[in-house]
Amino acid sequence: MNTRSEASIKRELQRLSPKTAEFKRKIIELLENAEPEVSYAIKRDLAIMTNMPFYKDRPEVIKISRNEIDLILEYAKLFCSCEDKDFIIKLIRRLGINQGQTIRKAAPKIGEKREIWEHAIPTKFIIGEITRMILERDILDLTILLNIYKKDGQRGVTKDQDRLLKQYRHSMPKRVGLERKQCRSFSKT
Fold first, then answer.
1. How far is Cα 139 from Cα 130, in angstroms, rounded to an integer?
2. pTM of this prediction exceeds 0.85
3. CA pair distance 112, 98, nearest whole angstrom
4. How far is the CA of 67 from the CAs of 75, 104, 147, 150, in angstroms?
5. What residues contact 46, with CB distance under 8 A and at least 6 apart?
6. N or C: which end of the chain has fewer CB within 10 A?
7. Which residues contact 107 (CB under 8 A, 6 or more apart)?
8. What is the mean pLDDT of each run of 10 residues along the chain (189 residues)?
9. Coil, strand or helix: which one is 174?
10. pLDDT at position 184, please?
């Protein structure tokens, strides 16, 4: 008797697909000249979920001396060296899906948990900004953005508060959005 869910089977088929195999090949190629910690962290982040390319091919564990922000900065430097923009966009998005991945862990849990941990700045917004900076090959403000993301962290909210925040799940209100000029002014305070 098969006890696996349809969703589990679908994720495994996605991981075993030719498209994912090609994606994995490109990642391995990109990581050939990466520092061991960076290579390990990216592969580890892409092994978390069943449909991810390194799920059953987890890298050998190594000790990482860098914090999450430093790792993300190293990711960005590495990604700026790649000419395949579509590949980099897909890779960055895949690196921000799960709570156990480096990009999401860069925002620590602050305060007491209520029912749900919610990122004060949506991770999708941060990933969008990281992607934009990498595609423009201008990551000068990335440290500032990541420090704001870390400082704001994740906050405990109730289910009712979470429902109210749902409209902002993947974006920032225009008044609160972090413009490049605002990031620079934050760095001076």
1. 8
2. no
3. 21
4. 12, 12, 12, 11
5. 27, 52, 53, 54, 94, 95
6. N
7. 119, 120, 121, 123, 149, 150, 152, 153, 154
8. 79 88 96 95 92 88 95 97 96 93 94 86 93 96 96 91 79 56 46
9. coil
10. 47
State the CB neighbour count (10 A cutoff) for residue 98: 15
118 Rama class: left (phi>0) / alpha (psi -120 to 50) / beta: beta
Question: Cα(75)–Cα(55) distance, rounded to whole angstroms?
Answer: 20
Q: Which tokens is 96 given?
A: 């921000």
Q: How many residues does the chain have?
A: 189
The predicted structure's pLDDT at residue 46? 95
Of 76, 138, 50, 147, which is closest to residue 107 (Cα–Cα)? 147
